[in-house]
Design goal:
Layout: H1 2-27, H2 36-50, E1 65-68, E2 71-83, E3 86-93, E4 101-105, H3 117-123, E5 128-134, H4 149-163, E6 168-172, H5 176-188, E7 197-201, H6 213-220, H7 223-230, E8 232-233, E9 244-246, H8 248-258, H9 260-276, H10 279-292, E10 298-299, H11 300-312, H12 315-318, E11 322-323, E12 326-327, E13 337-343, H13 357-360, E14 369-374, H14 386-402
Parallel strand pairs: 4-5, 4-6, 6-7, 7-13, 13-14
Antiparallel strand pairs: 1-2, 2-3, 3-5, 8-9, 9-10, 11-12
């Protein structure tokens, strides 16, 4: 009844949010507009109430142009391949130049692929960019079937096939495990679409290294606890009615609880900016939380298998990971160059967890391996923001160009 309880609470609050939005519109009219300090605080309070909401729809990528050389080129988002649990999108840039093709593998961990908007925007400067746009499990009918870790690997392989030979792969956070598995499987099969480079950014290749709170939680509870406490059925109003899922709103609560004071401080600042009419400053905070509060649900099988196989048993690091019953051997990777990236202040995927991939890819010659440690950035800063754009991205770009 967990999902139903959440939905009931949200339904109760919805009229209050709607009233606050209507009052905002009314207060902005020429007929009655609050003035003075009290009026500004009143309108700020209305907006804070109207924003008290978790959404379950993917925001727009809002990428309409990219800097190509010294000019801004138009960008359109194309659907390349549409599958039940995920869509392969391409950010098509109007240019005649042949550019390296890069598949960005987005996390399936409670947020939409748009969380990597900044990653994509930067990559578009020099690359033809594709991304995995994962579906919200509550919108996928039961009749479609299951979606577990093996299926995730299958989707990556299928997407690389669609892009074609000679592409590159870049995985962010949780899917580093599945991306490495996919490349290992393709390498062993000598698949023609095996990528030329593999960039793994802040992912739990070996979560036993420098365990974080996230890692400790995963191993502190039994698998039965996760199944009984966190898995629930999708309410009947949605297309995926009856599907058992790990709700995105629970993942959001878990993430926020790790840094609750920071989130509380951010919302206090947002209120102050709104009350003072500082729209630019308020806009930056609102944009971040519009993205952060957009969540998707994970299928039960994918979530439980991730807890067990990635975190509790660390199957990839121990050599026990299988794909449809067949052992995954990263030692089969011989021609795909490897770049790992870690953040010095990452409290979700700590130092050593991603660089562990170098030991697993034992057949790769030294010149095909590189590790980049970015000091003074947390998890989000590895793939978004000033340090990503100015210091990490050039390393990624150079690795890709070297293998073109």
């Amino acid at each position: 009844m967990l999902y139903q309880a959440y939905q009931f609470q949200d339904d109760l609050i919805a009229p209050l949010r709607d009233l606050a939005r209507r009052l905002q519109i009314f207060s902005a009219t020429a007929f009655w507009e609050p003035v003075g300090s009290m009026g500004q605080h009143f309108t700020a309070a209305l907006e804070m109430i109207s924003r008290f909401e978790i959404t379950h729809e993917r925001p727009d990528f809002a990428i309409t142009s990219a800097m190509i050389g010294n000019r801004m080129a138009p960008v359109t988002v194309e659907t390349v391949l549409d599958m039940p649990f995920g869509t392969l999108l391409r950010f098509a840039v109007e240019t005649d130049a042949q550019r390296p093709r890069v598949l960005v593998v987005a996390p399936l961990s409670g947020h939409f692929a748009t969380l990597l908007r900044g990653t994509v925007q930067t990559l578009l400067r020099d690359h033809d960019v594709y991304i995995t746009d994962w579906a919200n499990a509550r919108d996928v009918p039961l009749s479609v079937g299951r979606f577990g870790m093996d299926d995730y690997v299958d989707y990556i392989i299928r997407f690389l096939e669609e892009i074609g030979p000679g592409a590159h792969i870049l995985a962010v956070c949780q899917p580093c495990v599945q991306a490495l598995a996919a490349v290992a499987v393709m390498s062993e099969e000598r698949h023609p679409a095996t990528p030329r480079t593999m960039t793994l950014m802040a992912g739990p290749i070996d979560p036993r290294e420098s365990p974080t709170k996230v890692n400790e939680l995963a191993v502190s509870k039994s698998l039965a606890w996760f199944e009984n406490s966190l898995i629930t059925a999708v309410p009947w109003r949605y297309r995926g009615a009856g599907r058992r899922v790990y709700p995105g709103f629970l993942q959001l609560v878990a993430f926020m609880s790790m840094n609750m004071e920071r989130h509380q401080d951010a919302h206090r600042k947002l209120y102050d900016h709104l009350a003072k009419g500082e729209t630019a400053e308020a806009g930056k905070i609102k944009n971040f939380y519009d993205e952060y509060f957009a969540v998707l649900d994970l299928t039960e099988e994918f979530y439980i298998e991730t807890i067990e196989r990635v975190f509790q048993k660390a199957e990839l690091a121990t050599g026990d990971l299988t794909h449809h019953g067949r052992k995954v051997d990263p030692g089969q990777i011989r021609n795909t160059a490897l770049l790992t990236v870690e953040g010095g202040r990452d409290d979700i995927c700590a130092l050593g967890q991603t660089s562990a991939a170098h030991d697993l890819c034992r057949a790769l010659r030294p010149h095909l391996k590189r590790h980049h440690l970015q000091a003074n950035v947390g998890h989000y800063g590895v793939f978004n923001g000033r340090r990503w754009e100015g210091e990490i991205y050039p390393v990624v770009r150079n690795m890709i160009l070297a293998m073109e």
